Amino acid sequence: MPDMPPTGFVIGTPRCNLQPATCDPEWEVGRVSWKNLLAPLTPLYATVVTARAAAYRRGWLKVHRLPVPVVSVGNLTFGGTGKTPTVIALVRELAQHGRCPAVLTRGYGRRGRAPVVAVGPDPDPSLHETGDEAQELARRLPGVPIVIDADRVRGGREALRGGADVLVLDDGFQHLRIARDLDLVLLDAGDPWGGNQLPPRGRLREPVSALARASALLITKMSAQPEEQIAAVTGRVRRLAGELPVLTARLVPTRVRTSDGWRGVDVLAGQRVLAFAGLGRPADFARVLEDAGAHVVTTCWFADHHSYTRDDIRRLEVEAQREGAVPVTTGKDAVKLPADAQAWEVEAEMLPIEGSWSTLLRLLPGMGP
């Protein structure tokens, strides 16, 4: 790790100060922050999401059961829990067990609404048709259909026509139209409860009581010494949802694409880097780099799902040259960069601390011992 904390800067619409871990828009009108101005909307938000969940639970809104097992990977908070690397890890595990998985995703941030199917490693649909996360999924899961459709019931039926025998629902905890056989909820070890409040004052998508409908929890982004984090999270989970299975995982870099092609993670050791990304919790990316031995000399955090312009890249490269550093970013961001961008891409995987995903997969029909 560097001796001193890295400096930081923000390009585009400012949304945080120089400390990525505390990214938090707080522009003020007079002396009153926008969160305080919108705080009266919180009860309305809570009423809407609670009523919607109740409507599905009571059968007032239809839940569709598809004829193959469905695994949902979702979260309780907005952004930053590691859903995409978890989906990748679970799809690979299912394939290793002889299953034919497909991923259902809505394709956040894409242009157009037409359903598309992307199959990597070089998917035909463009980034604009798929969105950044779906594009990354297709590239990292070659041969696996990534079905991009806001109507994921329709997307699931399309995947079945293509031969899928298990469906992985990306960002699915709040997508209640599809019945799921395994409802996995991710909690970020660094911020599991999203400030304990619903928008606009916090990052909870639903009240924490919604965990009662989960099948299992996965605490992600664990530190090297996770015991205290596990105890703090599981204690509250037990009070809210009883004896749910609780697993833990850590985001680990696996390889780096440099100007010379893919290299091992050791290429980061001692390297001065400018870390940039458009993520929900970008400080986690800087931490991954530091854990790999990189010297993060400065950071640049964009808004989540940011679309990079030529001017963005030019300014990043100028800043990196000034610092004597290499621009380094994530796989999700790399798919949006121009082909000639001088930036390294770090590929990371979600690895279970327990050693395997077997505990989780045993909860899925047909996957038991």
Protein topology:
Elements: E1 7-9, E2 28-29, E3 32-33, H1 34-38, H2 42-57, E4 70-75, H3 83-96, E5 101-105, E6 116-118, H4 127-130, H5 132-140, E7 146-148, H6 152-161, E8 166-170, E9 182-188, E10 216-220, H7 227-241, E11 246-258, E12 261-263, E13 272-277, H8 283-291, E14 295-301, H9 310-323, E15 326-330, H10 331-334, E16 344-352, H11 358-361
Compact description:
The chain is of the alpha/beta class. It has 2 domains: 70-250 and 351-361, P-loop containing nucleotide triphosphate hydrolases (Rossmann fold); 252-350. It has helices spanning 34-38, 42-57, 83-96, 127-130, 132-140, 152-161, 227-241, 283-291, 310-323, 331-334, 358-361; strands at residues 7-9, 28-29, 32-33, 70-75, 101-105, 116-118, 146-148, 166-170, 182-188, 216-220, 246-258, 261-263, 272-277, 295-301, 326-330, 344-352.
Mean pLDDT rating: 85
Work out the strand percent: 15-25%
Question: What do we call the CATH homologous superfamily of the largest domain?
Answer: P-loop containing nucleotide triphosphate hydrolases
Number of domains: 2
Number of helices: 11
What top-tier CATH class of the largest domain fits best? Alpha Beta
Which spans have pLDDT < 50 for at least 5 consecutive residues? 1-32
How much is the radius of gyration in Å? 20 Å
- Which CATH-level-2 architecture of the largest domain? 3-Layer(aba) Sandwich
Shape: globular
Structural class: alpha/beta
Q: Kindly identify the CATH topology of the largest domain.
A: Rossmann fold
Which percent range fits the helix content?
25-40%
How do the SSEs run, as a string of H and E? Answer: EEEHHEHEEHHEHEEEHEEEHEHEHEH
Beta-strand segment tally: 16
Q: Specify the biggest β-sheet.
A: 14 strands, mixed
Distance between the termini: 42 Å
